[in-house]
Amino acid sequence: MIYNRKVHGTYFDLVMVLPALLLFSIFIVWPAVEAIFTSLYASPNRGGDFVGLANYREMVGDPVFWIAMKNNLLFILCNLVFQVGIGTIFAALLDRGVRRFSTTMRTIIFAPLVIAPVAIGVVWSMLLEPNFGMVRQLANTVGIKLPSQGFLGNPDLAFYSIVAVGAWNYIGFMMTIMLASMQAIPRDLYEAARLDGSSAIQTFFHITLPGVKGALILCSLIVIVGSFKTFEIVYVLTRGGPGNTTQVLGTYIVESAFTLFRPNYAAGMSVVVLIVAIFFGSLQVLTSRKRK
Amino acid sequence: MARVKIDALRKSYGSAQVIHDIDLDVRDKEFVALVGPSGCGKSTTLRMLAGLEDITGGTISIDDQVINDLDPADRGIAMVFQSYALYPHMSVAKNMSFALRVAGKPKAEIDARVKEAARILHLEEYLDRRPADLSGGQRQRVAMGRAIVRRPDVFLFDEPLSNLDAKLRTQMRTEIKRIHQEVGATTVYVTHDQVEAMTLADRIVIMRGGHIEQAGAPDEVYNHPESEFVASFIGSPPMNLTPAEVADGGLVLEDGTKLPVNLARFEGLSAGDKVTFGLRPDDIVLSGHGMDVNEPWNSKGTVNLSEPLGGETLVFFPFAGSEWIAKMLKPRALKVGEAIDLQFDLSRCHLFDRASGKRINNTK
Predict the structure, then answer these.
(1) Are residues B220 and B312 in the same domain?
(2) Taking every annotated instance into account, which residue ranges of this chain make up the domain ABC transporter (chain B) (predicted)?
(3) How many angstroms separate the CA atoms of A252 and A266, rounded?
């Protein structure tokens, strides 16, 4: 298209971005600003007392907040290892190793991603149901003894069960990003490495990994931000229990706002999540700019 | 010592056979160029030699050891790729030393070998740079350096100069020749550029459709092409070729032109035989240019086009129903449409059997 100065220009550009800007302002900026204000007051309507940073001070002394924060950080760690790690290994296998049925395998691994996390939570809560769930029945059939409360009711296993369900959900996504990146590595490099006597493992670490560094950083940032915002799967599977062992900031915010009726405190926690998300989001933008 | 022997080498992809039982013997320290048009099987042959492609049939041996089932790294070969295939995240030094590092060689030995290769290739000042910071020629030298540090018995080159511009290609050609003389390894070099093959190789192997058409020294394939295909492929510009029929006292071309070719010089010709008459552009001169012509035959022509190349000029003129080229070594300005007197040196002509395309040999 020929660029026409009379038609195009600052005003034209503004008009074109206005709808997106409007939607972004209404659904993202405004609620964020509202949350910040709400967090500084004692009751939901701003008619209440201005309490300044009192909600934030309370957070510092709230053990459940710190359990949720710790779980969020643990989620990041586990998801990095399982989602990005296993996703990368699957991608490497499909890229270099598996020759037959690779499209079928790719589809199977990717499939869970198209299911909504809430639906996944419901399906897995049925599968993991302590008395009649399919997992219990399978375990009984092969003679494996499972804890009586099942996976989700056991304080030692609940958290890792959620991690496993999350991994099942997102490994396909990570694998797809990593696979696309791996397939962009010229085949000549692998052939040169073969001639240089590099083993499969050496080739993975010396050729593949450095070649997918950008995608790896992208996946890691997606996982970090995603893990910090995690809510649906935890809420549907355990609601933060048993005994707050799986509590994350997302579920604790909802519980504070709608069960304990403390929306201002919940807003404060939302602001904390927002700040962390903005920090990692900026990192993501910075890295992608650097790569360009 | 590294003698490469290829026996009845065959390659098929499913039912499609792309290499047809080829035999080739590359002597120790010899520089052999595989040339041919796209799809002739030269790169496939090289890749089978490297171990990057499975062999369907036949054997490849280096110094009498069959290497068919050996890993690429265990064959004692190094390869320079068309794309250079340099590891983008590694410095020049790391690229060159990669094979030695994965083999667990001592650091002192690695450093010494990299320094030595860098000296040969004039890369000393670029050792810390990454491939992205190098020019095409420098990258090419790094790719060669990576091969040199391994001290292979056999060097394989897969169209290594095709990504370079014309000037750099000429420079690198000289460089490759110098390095071959200095390193002295047996070399198999794949190219589609016959000039590259002629200037670099001790022996040229011309391939077509998965077969070897001819293997011989550059002057041999140039002066005694075994087939019409080789005649048209080797030489720039290529040999002029036109259909002819054997008659009493010479050849008759399709437009009726009679050429008084001394047919007694050729084996087994009889009247009525259908042949292809070939003459190199170098063997056609402008009359009165004082060149020695053994069996001159005079003709008149008109200039279709002239291409002055500095030291010589290519003159395109219509002859026997097609466009022929003459190479003038003492150029003068020629205008399109200008009438010219030409002298064909019929003692230098080549004849090919029209049905088989094979050379009709000269009598001894």
Answers:
(1) no
(2) 4-234
(3) 8
Return d(Cα A9, Cα B340) in angstroms, integer: 64
Q: Taking Cα atoms as reference points, which of B318, B315, B344 lies closest to residue B329?
A: B315
CATH number of residue B156's parent domain: 3.40.50.300
Give CATH for domain A33-291.
1.10.3720.10
Same domain, B191 and B273: no
The full length of chain A comes to: 292
Residues 6+ apart with CB under 8 A from A192: B79, B81, B85, B86, B87, B146
Instruction: Quick: pLDDT tens for B202-217.
Output: 999 999 999 999 999 9
Q: Assess whether pLDDT exceeds 90 at residue B293.
A: no
Q: Is the pLDDT of residue A288 over 80?
A: no
Cα B287 from chain centroid (whole Å):
33
* Nearest residue in B to A212, CA atom: B89
- Quick check: is B287 in a domain? yes
Report chain B residues whose CB lies below 8 A from the CB of A205: none
List the strands of the sheet with B203-208, edge to edge: B77-80, B154-158, B186-191, B31-35, B203-208, B211-216
Is B15 in the same domain as B90?
yes
Range of the domain at B185: 4-232
Specify whether B22 is located in the same domain as B155.
yes
Largest CA distance in chain A: 78
Domain presence at residue B360: no
Asked whether residue B311 falls in the same domain as residue B330, the answer is yes
- A63-105 confidence digits (pLDDT tens): 999 999 999 999 999 999 999 999 999 998 888 777 778 788 8
Chain B positions touching A188 (Cβ under 8 A) are 81, 83, 85
Indicate if the pLDDT at residue B225 is higher than 70: yes
Q: Give me the residues paired with residue B247 across strands.
A: B250
In a domain, B78, yes or no: yes
Q: Which residues of B63-99 are buried (b: 16+ CB within 10 A; e: fewer)?
A: eeeebeeeebbebbbbbbbbbbbbbebbbbbbbbbbb
**Residue that finishes a domain, picked among B214, B232, B250:** B232
**Does A200 contact B at CB distance below 8 Å?**
no
pLDDT in tens, B65-104: 999 999 999 999 999 999 999 999 999 999 999 999 999 9
**Of B232, B264, B281, at which residue does a domain stop?**
B232
- B149-204 pLDDT, tens per residue? 988 999 999 998 888 888 888 888 888 888 888 888 899 999 988 889 999 999 99
Residues B173 and B321 reside in one and the same domain: no
Give kind and range of the element (H or E) at residue A58. Answer: helix A54-61
Specify the pLDDT at position B290. Answer: 61
Kindly report the length of chain B. Answer: 364
Mutate to test the interface with B, among A181, A188, A196 (most CBs of B within 10 A): A196
B62 with B207, same domain? yes
- What is the distance between the alpha carbons of residues A214 and B341, in angstroms, rounded to a whole number? 68
Q: Is residue B86 located within the same domain as residue B217?
A: yes
Establish whether this prediction's ipTM goes over 0.90.
Answer: no
Pairing of strands B31-35, B57-62: unpaired
Chain B hits for A193, CB-CB cut-off 8 Å, are 87, 98
B-chain residue closest to A188, CA distance: B85
